[in-house]
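testing teh design pipeline on a random one, pls ignore if ur not involved
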């Protein structure tokens, strides 16, 4: 847009370019006053922008305007008839023209340098603490450079070509025009392109550069001083400077208005801050959590009523004392003494990092021991050092005492299990596994017994071991003790041992069984929780079964031994749960489920074994349902070895006669040499 204005003015003046007008000596001072005000105001605004944002581009523009101001003053001082003849500088006739050339060439070029694209490393803002000094040095450097240029031109003017003879400027057009005009035109184009992307004082640089271009064009083509073209060129400078001056004054007014608005906003914020402080004080006084503020020496400087209630004292009682006050004794979460350097506040002061939910015991002389959950947060000074620490605390005495009791119980369990393991593990009893038709003992299940006090059922011992993290160790100890007695079993019988999924997947079980005749061992997979990782379990079982070991699934029809579980494992033996077997004679539902499991086992080539047979009636019913093997108190209680090889059961009409029955028994005793 500024370039279009220049073109329009040049075209309008073109027909009258060389018409002579009276010489007005006052025109130059008037022009000097307007342009000087423009330059000074531009420098002030741009330096203010630099000090606010650290923008080096604003600093470069202020350099250009300061340079323009000094050179222009030198030109006016050398202009004939403005102040005196030959002028305050003692200049010759060529001084003013050459200063005008230097001014109108250097000024657009400096503007172009300020508004062109810069490397990214120059786009970073200057450090705030250095901006005042950098701004002052820039102004002084620009004034010094411009003054040096003026001094050089004045000093060499008498040896420079005369480019204005009286009022004739044609020689200047011939000598200077071919170089000066393209330089100023290109610089103006760069300035206009750069100013379009910016705002504030920077955007007025385009108008200043185009006014300079217009002055150059009209002066070079007017041929005379004080012609229409000459006056038009300087008038463009005056008008553009005046327009920009008015705009900059508007900028000042806008800045003043924004400052006033900012002042009002700050006043409102201060009022709001005061209100928030009162609200904060009210909130702190009603907070359920205790809050402390401590200085860099860990002295308490502020506390709320909840903290005072927790720590036993009023605000004045707590103010100024250390958290390491002799009245207090700090403890770790486990009840041990908490060293000074490990307290939450000391750690936050030393590392600058807050603590979250750290349990600290505070033993007060008057109130006993309290457990607190403490959070800390550092408050930093402008330099980044920790100035204060704010701590919030909640009374968790009841919860933590319960946790300590649970931890003590856990430790007591672990101690009991450790004592059993140190004594060699549990003792083992053996319950016979019988062919229900013939009464022949085909195997035995090893069952653990514990003599240690307090007396509890074996399942509780194994549960405690699992809770204490020693479940695998206790199961392996029981299996080892059972395997040591395998040689006492009658030839052709097998030994059944129990293990959970965690023990099966451990390396200890494989190492233990690697020294045993696995063809005579059945592994009963017991479950008290679901299997979490079937893939890992199946890999471990495949490795064990490759040694000749057979797999039994315990508690079928109850708990976690679901049909999906059995399908995944493909066991050799399915053991009916005692809850399904007991009372099966009088329960049609149990009988139906037992028949279904027998059929299911037949389909997957697994034998079915009932455990918990405690009456002759249930034994008879199980035989009738097709269950061929079992164990229970009715058949034989757990006892020390040796075991009988044949039991007297019901009449022999229930003996095995079919080839299918014989096949199932061979599967059960595969590799043992046992035949019906």
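output:
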């Amino acid at each position: 847009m500024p370039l279009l204005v220049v073109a329009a003015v040049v075209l309008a003046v073109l027909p009258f370019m060389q018409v002579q007008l009276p010489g007005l000596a006052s025109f130059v001072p008037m022009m000097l006053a307007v342009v000087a005000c423009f330059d000074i105001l531009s420098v002030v605004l741009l330096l203010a922008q630099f000090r606010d944002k650290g923008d080096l581009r604003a600093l470069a523009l202020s350099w250009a305007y300061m340079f323009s101001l000094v050179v222009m003053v030198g030109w006016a001082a050398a202009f004939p008839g403005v102040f005196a003849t030959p002028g305050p500088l003692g200049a010759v006739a060529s001084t003013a023209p050459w200063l005008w050339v230097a001014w109108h060439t250097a000024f657009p070029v400096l503007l172009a340098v300020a508004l062109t694209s810069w490397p990214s490393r120059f786009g970073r803002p200057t450090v705030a603490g250095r901006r005042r000094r950098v701004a002052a040095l820039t102004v002084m450097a620009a004034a010094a450079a411009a003054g040096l240029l003026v001094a050089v031109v004045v000093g060499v003017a008498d040896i420079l070509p005369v480019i204005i003879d009286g009022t004739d400027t044609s020689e200047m057009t011939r000598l200077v025009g071919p170089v000066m005009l393209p330089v100023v035109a290109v610089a103006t184009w760069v300035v206009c392109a750069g100013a379009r992307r910016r705002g504030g004082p920077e955007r007025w640089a385009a108008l200043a550069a185009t006014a300079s271009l217009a002055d150059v064009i009209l002066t070079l083509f007017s041929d005379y001083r004080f012609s229409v073209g000459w006056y038009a060129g300087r008038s463009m400078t005056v008008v553009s400077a005046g327009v920009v001056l008015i705009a900059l004054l508007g900028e000042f007014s806008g800045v003043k208005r924004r400052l006033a608005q900012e002042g009002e906003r700050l006043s409102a914020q201060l009022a709001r801050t005061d209100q928030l402080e009162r609200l904060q004080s009210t909130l702190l006084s009603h907070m359920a959590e205790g809050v402390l503020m401590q200085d860099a020496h860990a002295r308490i400087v502020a506390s709320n009523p909840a903290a005072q209630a927790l720590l036993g004292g009023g605000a004045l009682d707590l103010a100024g004392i250390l958290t390491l006050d002799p009245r207090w004794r700090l403890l770790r979460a486990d009840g041990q003494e908490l060293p000074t350097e490990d307290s939450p506040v000391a750690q936050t002061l030393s590392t600058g990092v807050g603590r979250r939910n750290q349990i600290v015991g505070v033993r007060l002389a008057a109130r006993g021991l309290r457990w607190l959950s403490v959070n800390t947060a550092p408050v930093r000074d402008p330099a980044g050092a920790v100035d204060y620490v704010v701590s919030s605390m909640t009374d968790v005495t009841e919860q933590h005492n319960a946790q300590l009791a649970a931890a003590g119980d856990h430790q007591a369990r672990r101690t009991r299990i450790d004592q059993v393991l140190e004594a060699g593990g549990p003792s083992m009893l053996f319950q016979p596994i019988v062919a229900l038709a013939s009464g022949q003992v085909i195997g035995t299940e090893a069952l653990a017994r514990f003599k240690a006090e307090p007396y509890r059922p074996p399942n509780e011992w194994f549960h405690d071991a699992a809770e204490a993290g020693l479940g695998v160790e206790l199961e392996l100890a029981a299996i080892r003790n059972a395997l040591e007695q395998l040689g006492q079993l009658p030839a052709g019988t097998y030994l059944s041992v129990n293990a959970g999924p965690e023990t099966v997947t451990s390396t200890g079980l494989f190492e233990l069984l690697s020294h045993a005749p696995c063809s005579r061992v059945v592994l009963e997979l017991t479950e008290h929780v679901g299997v979490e990782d079937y893939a890992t379990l199946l890999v471990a079982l495949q490795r064990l079964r490759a040694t000749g070991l057979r797999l039994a699934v315990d508690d079928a029809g109850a708990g976690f031994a679901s049909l999906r579980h059995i399908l995944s494992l493909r066991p050799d033996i399915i053991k009916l749960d005692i809850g399904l077997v007991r009372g099966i004679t009088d329960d049609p539902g149990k009988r139906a489920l037992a028949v279904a499991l027998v059929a299911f086992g037949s389909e997957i080539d697994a034998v079915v074994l009932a455990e918990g047979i405690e009456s002759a009636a249930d034994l008879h019913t199980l035989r009738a349902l097709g269950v061929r093997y079992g164990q229970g108190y009715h058949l034989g209680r757990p006892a020390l070895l040796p075991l009988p090889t044949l039991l007297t059961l019901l009449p022999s009409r229930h003996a095995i006669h079919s080839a299918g029955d014989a096949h199932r028994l061979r599967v059960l005793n595969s590799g043992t040499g046992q035949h019906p």
